[in-house]
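[Meeting: bench + compute handoff]

Bench side (C.D.) handed over the final construct sequence. Compute side (W.E.) agreed to return the predicted structure before the next meeting so the bench team could plan truncations. Sequence as handed over:
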Amino acid sequence: MTNPPSDKQTLSRFVTVNNNLNSSKPKSMASSSIYNCTECGTNLNLSAAQLYPSDFYFEAGNKGTLSFSWVDTSKFRFEKEDKIRPFFETLNYWGIQRKRTKIICNSCGRVVGHVYDDGPPLTNSAGQFNMGPSQVIPRAPRYRFKTKALQITS
């Protein structure tokens, strides 16, 4: 079993990935993709430039989903979800109470994904009292879309 990367490793990889995605080099086929809702066909205005790589480490996992660092909020409704029920996403991400936000298509009302706060750290801090990373360090939101809720066209 591999250990998760440290917050500094995650932050430097995120910066490197975003710089590579935003560079002037020719883009891959994915950068010209159009992401639509499978239910109603609405263009969700998601950008491949904001797409995390499929092997990027997240505490809540990434199986069967596409994760973006930014979305056009005019295309979605966001609904808070607070459930007290056991959940198991990955070996390191489980618990009794789950707090997350549903991402709902504005056009048809279908749940297309969730917002998680397990993205890269927003600071380069060593944590509270320099005792290592903790939940006190603010993390960037990650917009996690179900692949079966997206229709991807090139």
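W.E. noted at the follow-up: Residues 33 and 107 are 20 Å apart (CA to CA). C.D. will use this when planning the next construct.
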